[in-house]
Amino acid sequence: MVWAKPEIFKAIRNGKIRIEPYDAKLVGSCSVDFRLGNHFKRIKKSKKPVLVSGNPQYDDHLHEEIVISDGKFIQLKPGELVLGVTYEKLTLDNKTCAFIEGRSRLARLGLLVHVSSGMIQPGVSNHQVLEIVNLSPHTLHLQPKTIICQILFNDLKGKAEYKGEFKNQTTA
Known about the structure:
The protein is mainly β and 172 residues long. It has one domain (5-46, 60-155): Deoxyuridine triphosphatase (dUTPase) (Deoxyuridine 5'-Triphosphate Nucleotidohydrolase, Chain A), CATH 2.70.40.10. The protein is built from 2 helices and 11 strands. It has helices spanning 5-14, 104-107; strands spanning 17-20, 32-43, 63-67, 74-76, 81-92, 96-102, 111-112, 119-120, 125-134, 140-142, 147-155. The longest helix has 10 residues, at 5-14. The protein is globular and about 50 Å long.
C-alpha cells in the first residue's frame, strides 16, 4: 500500500523515514517531492565496446563527473542520458521501501528521471541516483534544486535491509 500524507508525516515523526534537508511543503497527497542535486555523471562517447556482464564496472573512463553551481544548469541534448542525484538524502528503516516516480510536467517536455531503477531498498541512507534522459527533440537545461521526482513509500511485510555497494551513495 502506498502511504497517504498523514502516514508520511507520521513516518517522518517516528523516524521510519528521514529526509535531509526536510521541507514539509514538499509532502503531497501520497508522495514527497525531491529536488535535483548538483552532481552529475555524463557517459563519455567512445568507439571502444563496453562489456555488459553480471557485475559491470563503472570505471572513471566511462563517465565524466560534472558539478553544477546553484543558479547554473546542465545541458541535456536530445537522446542524451545523464546520471544525477537528488538534493535530498533519504534514509529508510528496515520495514520501509520506496519508489521513485517522475513528474508529469517534466514528462510532457520529454524528460524521464529514471530508466529502470525506481525501487529504493529498505535500510538505505543516500541521495537517490536518477537516470535522466531527454526524449524530446529539444535541448533541455536542468537546474539544481528543481523539483525533479516524487517518492512513494510502502510498508514491507517482514524486515529487509539492502547491503549493496550503493547503500550510502552520495554522488551519481
